[in-house]
Every structure is written in structure tokens, then in C-alpha cells.
Automatic annotation (TrEMBL):
<dbReference type="Pfam" id="PF00005">
    <property type="entry name" value="ABC_tran"/>
</dbReference>
<dbReference type="GO" id="GO:0005524">
    <property type="term" value="F:ATP binding"/>
</dbReference>
<dbReference type="InterPro" id="IPR003439">
    <property type="entry name" value="ABC_transporter-like_ATP-bd"/>
</dbReference>
<protein>
    <submittedName>
        <fullName>ABC transporter ATP-binding protein</fullName>
    </submittedName>
</protein>
<feature type="domain" description="ABC transporter">
    <location>
        <begin position="2"/>
        <end position="236"/>
    </location>
</feature>
<dbReference type="InterPro" id="IPR003593">
    <property type="entry name" value="AAA+_ATPase"/>
</dbReference>
<keyword id="KW-0547">Nucleotide-binding</keyword>
<dbReference type="InterPro" id="IPR027417">
    <property type="entry name" value="P-loop_NTPase"/>
</dbReference>
<dbReference type="GO" id="GO:0016887">
    <property type="term" value="F:ATP hydrolysis activity"/>
</dbReference>
<keyword id="KW-1278">Translocase</keyword>
<keyword id="KW-0067">ATP-binding</keyword>
<keyword id="KW-0813">Transport</keyword>
Amino acid sequence: MIELKELRAGYGTFEVLHGISIAFPPGQVTAIAGPNGCGKSTLLRAVLGMAQRMGGQVLFDGRPVEELSAREIAQRAAYMPQDRPVPSISVRRMALHGRFPYLSYPRHYRREDYDIVDAALRRADALELADRPLPELSGGQRQRAYLAMVLAQGAGTVFMDEPTAFLDIRHQFGVMDTARSLAGDGRAVAIVTHDLALALRRADRLAIMQDGRLRMLGSPDEVFESGAVDEVFGVRLRRVDTPDGPQYYFAQEAF
């Protein structure tokens, strides 16, 4: 399990995160939400060393992250960033990059790697795109290609930064179904999202951030009852119970 204890992090001398403590338990989907600039993406990046850690601890199964090699970190945590390059390679080749942490030098893919990639492409609903070059794809199709790469990595913890951006409604639900399926496999999943209504319906826990701090962490019911969403976002969160479970919507009402 990956755990953060009083983590402070940022860029250069600018501190973005101010003492964040949170764990990502196996078998659960944790959604991370908050206003723009509150530090959601920086939190994921700091865990993996892509943002400067300025204090506190990041622990991988109780071990400080500083004790792990880059290869060991990549075998334990997969990351789907918000901003993604678009190299002139096929979707299958992109997905194969997820197997890099398991290859010895020189890099030669094994039959097992190709089988894992095919399964990842299928799970990401991207198998029909396998032989197409990334630059020819729509934003949503590229999103599915990157999801396949993350799945092929086979890490115990999966971090996704805005994975439903650019996707149509069907594929947004597909991504969340995949996240739930990964949690069902015993993996920890953390998703940065702006879609609070979807997160409240599909995540096990919701972390609300504000100004680089963790404002609220709890189940969807606990977050709803706390009023944290109303206070942080300046809207009224409403819930309607339906035969398909609770549904959430927002009302623009002045406080």
C-alpha cells in the first residue's frame, strides 16, 4: 500500500502541498477532487518523484520511496498523466511501453508481454485500435491507448489524472468500470477528476482538496453529509435516491 504522511511538495521553491496525509488501500477506488490549482495532480506526481518532495514521507508497503529504484517504483505504481505526448507509434507499441519495468537489457519482449498487452488493449476497449498510429486518433481514442499502457504495466497501484477527459459518456463509464474492476482484482486505484457526480457514484472514497490541503476524506455518503463540497466549490450538492442508487447534481445557489 502507498501511504503519504504529512507530505509537502511543489516545484522549485514554491510549495503546493502542505502536509497531506492519505493512504491508497488495495481493493478501493479513491477519487481526488478539488478546484483548479489545489494540488491534485501534484499529489500524484510527488508520489512518483515528478514533483519535488519538500517534507514528510511517501511509503511503499512501509518502505520510504527513497529506498526504491525507479524500476521498483514502476513495478508498484502505474501513472496515467493528464498531459500526454503523442509519438508516431502504433497503439500496440504504446501499450508495450507498459512492460518496460519488467524487461532486462537489451529489451526483448517475451510472448508473455504480448499476451498481457492484448489483454490490456481488450480491457481498455482499444483492441480495434491496436495497429493504428497515435497521431491519427481522436483525443478519446488516445486516452484509451494510454489506459491500455497503464493496464499492461500490471502495478498494484494505479494513478490516473483526469482519465475521463475527452471521452464520450459511454467510455467515461467504461473507464470507471475498469477502475472498479481493477479494485476488484485487489489493486489500489486513485483518480483525479473534475466529474464529482461520477466520482460520488462510482468511487469508494472521495478526497476533497483545497489550497494544497486535504479538506475531507471519506465515503461518498460521508462527503455528502459533511458539506465539504458545498464549501469548497461554492455550490449546493444535492442527492436523489433512485432504483439505480443515489444520483447527485449541483445547484447554483448563493450562500
